[in-house]
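**Discrete fold encoding**
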Amino acid sequence: MTADQKPKLDNDSALAQASDEVKLAVDLIYLLETHGIEPKVALAALEIVKQDLVNKLAIN
């Protein structure tokens, strides 16, 4: 997906009917690709985010 191909959400699209997790994943992929983030860097950053979220869930 290129920068000018971000999916449009409308009531008829499959993405509009998708779960919040899928919508967020699509947005994150778009963000990473449009900013030219290398996959290894993205995965490392996502691991940091994952640990942060796991810690927040443990506190609550």
Observations:
- The CA atoms of residues 3 and 38 lie 15 Å apart.
- The chain has a mean pLDDT of 87.
